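User: two proteins, same treatment. go.

Assistant:
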Amino acid sequence: MCGIAGFFSPAKSRPTDEMSGITRAMTDALLLRGPDDAGAWVDADRGVALGHRRLSILDLSPLGHQPMASADGRFVMVFNGEIYNFQELRAELEKSGHTWRGHSDTEIMLAAFIQWGVVEAAKRFNGMFAFAVWDMQERVLQLGRDRCGEKPLYYGWVGDTFIFASELKAVQKFPGFNAAVSREALTSLLRFNYIPDPLCIYEGFQKLPPATLITLRSPAERPQPAHYWKLTEAVERGLDHPFTGTEAEAIDTFEAMLKKAVGMRMVADVPLGAFLSGGVDSSLIVAMMQKQSTRPVRTFTIGFHEKEHNEAEFAREVAKHLGTDHTEMYVSGEDALNVIPQLPALYDEPFSDYSQIPTYLVCKMARQHVTVALSGDAGDELFGGYERYFVGRNLWDKFAWMPRPMKKLAAAALTALPPAVLNGMGNAARPILPKRLRHVPFGDKLHKLAEVVAAPGMETLYLNLMSHWKRPQEIVLGGKDPVTAITDTARWPRVGDFTHRMMHLDMETYLPGDILVKVDRAAMGVSLEGRIPLLDTELVEFAWRVPFSMKVRDGKGKWLMRETLYRHVPKALIDRPKRGFGIPLDVWLRGPLREWAEDLLGEARLKREGFFHPEPIRQKWREHLSGTRNWHFYLWDVLMFQAWLQHHRP
């Protein structure tokens, strides 16, 4: 795991010393991504500079140093990530006569470029990666990103120079950088709580989409990313050619594939462990690790003193059953609050999924013991685990038959009383309600239900389920709600089932834009490498072949994962209500964070900065403070942008 940066200027436009100094400044900004080593390669005659910061995981010797040149001298590359099938590729390349100086996967990638070319080689890589490679023979710069978007890569232009980097903090170090804030990206942040690919918070810059390459023969070119793999095609292939074996055969196949994927991700020359929440996904990953380890696997959990947010006790029981070397740490509200000032620098593009806070805390704890940690992310997207898959489908089935005018009437009836009144009625009835309903904000729930009822189609329903601010373009001054994979039907695969469509769109947007960003920045912020076995290429493609009935059954998702896990962990330890991996943000905004938030949301400040219409934000802030509504999701979107703006433009 590393950080990369570089640029492509007009030939001979800068002397070698200047280019080297700029490259070092850019890579120094990525120190936490790669604290172990640094390197730069410059060709002033061609205007190319490649820089690298290294977190040593494989081949800790100088033979793993980057930038690295291919054995024939044709290619020079910087690379961030891991190629998990590098040993298979190594054996295949040896048959064609390739020999090795060390045993890093970087050297294998360069040999693959020699043997098959960059595009064909990328198709063979099973891993997480972002790379930049300069072809000295063809005088071409190529950038590539992994299939699911685990590793980040930004690019854009400053004047006549093309720039790229793992994070924007490196881009900002390039001389003359002064990009304006993109109002489209800001509008998307308010809607989704993240900025989806290919948008970037800075105008003139963008993220390289997952599973794509771009090719430049000169810095003046404006190439379009080209796919070497497409999720939509994988989805269609899987649904057209479903798995036809029995349920037992499906479990056997999945377990064998997962065991292999986990085993490949356990290869490291540094200490390795895993995050363990006690849920299905992380417990299954740890079970597969322990099955292949000769010693107890290191596992890590953070706990919260607030019972409704705490899963540490469940993780402890799973760890005890599997026999892992378990470490847990209970964090206080003060611990979590102390993370907030670090967020603008940690996520140097605005990001407002507030589970970023506990994610950072668990990464920080794990880094005290290991350098690599495996996680169970992506199980929900691949095997139908999110609650919206059930809620959305059930609600749609209940109301889809209604004519449009009847839907509008039903929605109007549900919203006849203000949410505050309905919430108050719920509070008054709390003593006689079942325990599971005593803290439900009935007004908020009924008004959300009204949005679902009024939705004219499944696509609108899904968009509403995924949106915070429903009309963010009316909040952002000059805002525009851009077309995304969710709203561009031309990019959808041929998927008739509503739930499968939601799962595909989550894989296309929410996973790379939110989940993987959260994990990458939190882990890299403490120089920890995170690995995600469920995003193994073969597993992703297999998941789309699995029949829906083996994913969702009896109102529960991840059926196939659960049945596999029951072979290793007693069902009683797993089948329990899930608690959120979160923090009491709604309460904190009324308490210890109130002064901080009030400063960032001040009306005069919002007017002066010129990004938002103040009144809708101030109205939600007043309602939240009064306790009549819980608007913490909406407010956190604005607060994270405001904190980012303050950090980058003090």
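Protein 2:
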Amino acid sequence: MGRQGSVSVNREWGIRLSKKRIVEATFVVILLGALSKVLGFAREQMIAVFFGATGRTDAYVVANTITGVITGILSGPLSTAFLPVFASHVANGDREGASRLASSVITISTAAVLGISVAAMLPADKLVSIAAPGFSGTTFNDAVLLTRVFLPAMAIPLLSAFAKSVLNTYDHFGIPALAPSLQNLVIVAIISLLAPVFGVASLAVAVVGGYAAGLAVQVPQWFKVGGRPSFSLRMDESARRVMKLAVPLMAGALFSQLYLFVDRNLASHLPEGSIAALSFADRLRQVPLGLFVSAVVTVVYPTLSGMWAKNDSEGFKETAIMGLRYVEFICIPAALGLMVLAKPVVRLVFEHGAFTAGATSLTASALVAYSPALVAMAATQVISVAFYSSQDTRTPVILAAVTAVLNVLLDLVLVRFLGHVGLAIANSLAATLGALAGLYALNRLSKLPLKSLATSLAKILVSSTVMAGAALALSAALNFGEGTGSLLRDALTAAVVIGGAVLVYILVAAVLRCEEMSTFAAMIRRRMGKETPVNRRLATKERRDRARGLR
């Protein structure tokens, strides 16, 4: 076999290995993410039980929004820009350079976040007035207290993000995926113990304690595989590259935070509990994003970065499209499912203690309007990391800025007519247009196999529509929409309705021969040690092709 043939076989073999590694690593992250989501629901339920959709929860959400500016504008962009540069050192065998880069970037970033956070503590009352001008009395005071506690703690999730980037680059996904579970477990424990006595102050203690636990569980493995980072203010070429990549991301994050500020500002003038209802609905919408999409992105990001560093354009395109197809295989049916089952799901999850039937109606209406954005948000995450992997941070920033401005304009119009539901609809419309623009831009960067993506999406949409019809039929037959009055019976009914709908989706997807379905099935068979004759022949052929390519 000639050199060109060997290169071709090696590339195809690399893509197959990459696909297998991505699916299997994603499977591990999903399992751990499922645990995190269960505990995350427990966290939200604790907040709902003790505080409901009231002014106290509104104060907590606004404090998180204000401190999220630090995370959004500094922490997120810095850790995102760090990964592809760090991964390029590792991909080229330069572990010493990777260690120097980590020490410099982590030291400078942490110092910046701490400095800005501490400086913002004193004028916290003014920040709350800007973010939520409709607040007054106890709600205002609670928001100021929580903001002042949360601000200096923002350095902790920054360090956790760096730890995750280092571990993922070295193909360690388990511990970083476990960290959110421990974080949520600590938050649940502290709220349940302290909320009856200390009220809203328990949220401050719980959140800071959860952040610390999430970082602590990653530190031992981080130091083991990536080296203990040292104090360093050195700005070499790689560190400057990270900062250069981070600046556009910070600009884009600024627009995203602007949208959140406008959203909370407008909602603060609506009836009490509107902000909380939007927040609880968003938490439900985030389940498939946090459980599956983040798992795919976690694995795909360092893979794409390594492929770009090695000039593997075919592998880059195949992996990007594969990521888009996998996330939509989950998010399209999830979006339709949340829309048709919004009210009974909200009632089952949150309607306990201080969370009333009125709060359920507010939250469910927001969830229906929020859910279509799931499809767009999932695609945008994959598209963004594809650009980041190519060390192009300007394009996703421009897209984020345009999306945020569009969202704000739609907010200002729709809130007048539809209240908090208008804010949710505005988010879905802006997210969808932003995702379409992002796909167009990515296709210009790297000619993608869009035909395979379109075929896959068509099959997924048909399967999801049939699934939604089945969910409605089962819900009506079992009276899931109205509820039984018993938490246990409602939970069992939900399991039957949702489980039945998922089964219908899987069967239709199998009939339509969705490739994503067969990939996951093959992975599960390998995990279970069940290898068919066809699989054995394929494995033998892959080994033979690999041997020829290596020769």
